[in-house]
Amino acid sequence: xxxxxxxxxWLLQRRSKERExxxxxxxxxxxxxxxxxxxxxxxxxxxxxxxxxxxxxxSLREDTRAAWGWTMVEQFGQDVRYAFRxxxxxRLFTLLAIVSLALGIGAATAIFSIVNAVLLRPLPYRAxxxxxxxxxxxxxxxxxxxxxxxxxxxxxxxxxLTGSFESIGSFVFTALPVSIGEQSMYLVAIGADQELLxxxxxxxxxxxxxxxxxxxxxxxxxxxxQKLWAGAFHGDPAVIGHTMVIDGQFSTVxxxxxxxxxxxxxxxxxxxxxxxxxxxxxxxxxxxxxxxxQWFSIARLKPGIGVAQAESELKSVTSHIAKQEGLxxxxxxxxxxxxxxxxxxLLLLLGISIMLLLIACTNIxxxxxxxxxxxxxxxxxxxxxxxxxxxxxxQMLTESACLTALGGILGxxxxxxxxxxxxxxxxxxxxxxxxxxxDPAVLGFTFFVCAGAAFSAGLFPAVHTSLRQGNAPGSLGxxxxxxxxxxxxxxxxxxxxxxxxLALLATAGLLTHSLLRLGSVxxxxxxxxxxxxxxxxxxxxxxTQTKQLFHRMLEETRxxxxxxxxxxxxxxxxxxxxxxxxxFSVIGPEVQAPRTRARCNFQVTSEDYFKTxxxxxxxxxxxxxxxxxxAPPAVIVNEAFARQYFGPTGALxxxxxxxxxxxxxxxxxxxxxxxxxxxxxxxxxxxxxxxxFEQFPRRYGSVAVRTNMAPETIISEIRKxxxxxxxxxxxxxxxxxEARIHKTLGEPRFYALLAGACALMAxxxxxxxxxxxxxxxxxxxxxxxxxxxALGAPKQRILRGVLWQGLRMALVGVASxxxxxxxxxxFLANLLFEVKPNDPATLALAAGLVLAVxxxxxxxxxxxxxxxxxxxxxxxx
Amino acid sequence: xxxxxxxxxxLLQGTLDLLILQTLLAAPSHGHAIAKHIQRTSEDLLQVETxxxxxxxxxxxxxxxxxxxxxxxxxGKRAKYYRLTPGGRKHLAAEQSKWQAFSRAMRLILNPxxxxxx
Lengths: 877, 118
Hints:
- The complex is a heterodimer.
- By secondary structure, chain A is α+β, with helices and mostly antiparallel strands.
- Chain A has a six-stranded mixed barrel.
- In chain A, helix 12 runs parallel beside helix 22 (746-780) and helix 16 (483-519) runs antiparallel to helix 22.
- Chain A starts with a helix and ends with a helix.
- The interface between A and B is medium-sized, with 29 and 26 residues.
């Protein structure tokens, strides 16, 4: 090591080192002369003898310098200088190479930065491998359904009866009206127990966790996010002990989450924003129902306990304590649970970007090959002057490394500027998407990619050039050096490029096709002219006050000029996240004891909701203002519900008992509505029951407003009127239904967009590559063409001949590209909606496009060839 | 001087380093003096080529076995003096015993008669 430092030191002061060596040798010479003279040799002769003994000074100095250990470095320096000189001479080549490398490396880096943030970085919790997400498995006859949520009673039961877990936390996402000082807002919140933060192993930035475990101790405390602390509390260092009003109740701030905190399962959250507060789950546990499976649960395995062992214990305990038949539980790594949905599309994109880079590298390899032929003379001279093959290979690799390094730097710059754009267009629920950044891991990846690119693009041409010259020193300047094998190799490279390019284009095409299909699905409700907004009533309002407020709000909204109708619902579609799943039983003549206990999605609506959304009533009636708390309990179900629980006999007039209703209060099904894709266009309708608002009042929900004006124009009027009724009710998320649908397509659109961008670049590169190879072919055959034309070959024939050269590569490439697309299409199957991975129309379109551009790419050089003046061509030699 | 003289022997590969280190064991010295010392001590059997002496000196310096400093020679001229470092001393000892074992083995094989010779 010290020797390495010594050499480095010498490298830095190599000028003085050189001077010292000169001085040392001069001293040697002087001593020798002196010695000879002392022996009696005449001065002149002594000088001559001494010089002769010293030998070849240049080679002596060379050998000594080698001992200093930086010959390699010096040669590298020379090579780099030479590479840059070559680059400045071949400007067009260099520009093309660097730009295409930069695009390829930039795309790969940008996509890897997403993969890194979303898939690779460990979850920001203590020992994340031990964290398990608990899901409930519900078996009914043949069908087995898994829900990501469980009930609080189950969590309490597991805590008491299992031994495999260090701790089990539970939580739920919600949104609450909050006032901090003068500001009132509607915040996404997590109702959590003390065990949640303990289980995750999160250390608070300030303050402490809730003081009571479990879900039964209410305490007026709140833990706030770093964002809220910095925003609403202006980063007050003495924030602990402050109070804020959450849902009408005073709560004391007891802790601040660290900046690195990532809310667990945000991917499954109902809301697109990250939560801002953590409040005790006990506050809402009774209201929301401890037995209903709407709570998320995360458990930490005890060290040394395996997943299978813990799961089997969990299963046996669950079947023991379950109040419902066929209920069981499942463990899955929190990591996988959070990331599994995005893994395959992201890896696919990464693959696509690497293929793109490969195409760019192939282009450069082909260009280097072409140039190698023109540089034959230079290489032959170098070799004659004593350069070894290895030395030549190194020199040429340095050149491709310089190209790649420049491309890489530019590419990182591109990726850097793309990150902001990527975050902006990324779908809401991509986990940890806000953390996308060009960090050391990403830079490391880029470095390896660049090194790979430099080698893959440079090695073959370098070896080829350096080896060839040995056999053909006599043929300086001859154009026959390229040889047939090289031409064939270049052609197969181009063919491979066309194949890869087509495969990428086909993939992007399939994703886009699938996106279009998804976008054209009839959601079952109308999308135009409907505005939605959310609101929440603070809990200091009594139930009566809340009901009155609802009615007055709807009335006021309906009376706005231009508003045709308005209705209220708990979750306005399309909503792709968790719904309100609650148990219910079916009552009927053929279903006697035991009553089946099932779960379905419950929604609470006001009258006119279905009319506002344009959801047709297939039978029965809509809710009316007569469906009050005192009226007979009523329920409207959708087709899926009717089909699943009543079959063809018809659901109208039959009754169910909802889990939250008093035991003997059956609800009669008074209406059946059409199925809607209310959980996203790609998701099938699930059994849903709608309850009248008066009979099951809620404090939060959404209003749908149908208007014959531009929906945005009435927002301020709605705000004004609602504030006039009650200024403590926060309103938020004013969006049109169209915009909400657009948002649910965010994920497939994101993937299609990135894949499409890569594919278009790929096609561009392939076109350039093919153009380059055909042009090169033409330029090498100018003389031949001249002879043929002089002998009377028609222009058309020359044109066709060259065109055929390009087309042949394109055709073989397209054929193998189609085969490649079919081979890799199974990776796509899960990402496509109603489009088969081998969709003939998409593949044909992609193939057609690739053929068309390759035709253009070979037509240009072909035309040039056909316009050759025979005499000029013949003198070309 | 002339290599063809039978009274001269070629230096074996790798022995020059050992000779330099051994020479420096006595006292620090400059390149010219080292060469002359080796020549004289070997009774002119070994002649050190300047072309290999200086690369060897610089290589040994790079390895840290010898150190160098510019000092005035006995005739008052600036010369680069080399001296043995502790590391070089250790290396010399190791090489010496290796070399002695080797030369004893050679002698035993080439002169089976004086096996018991000291």
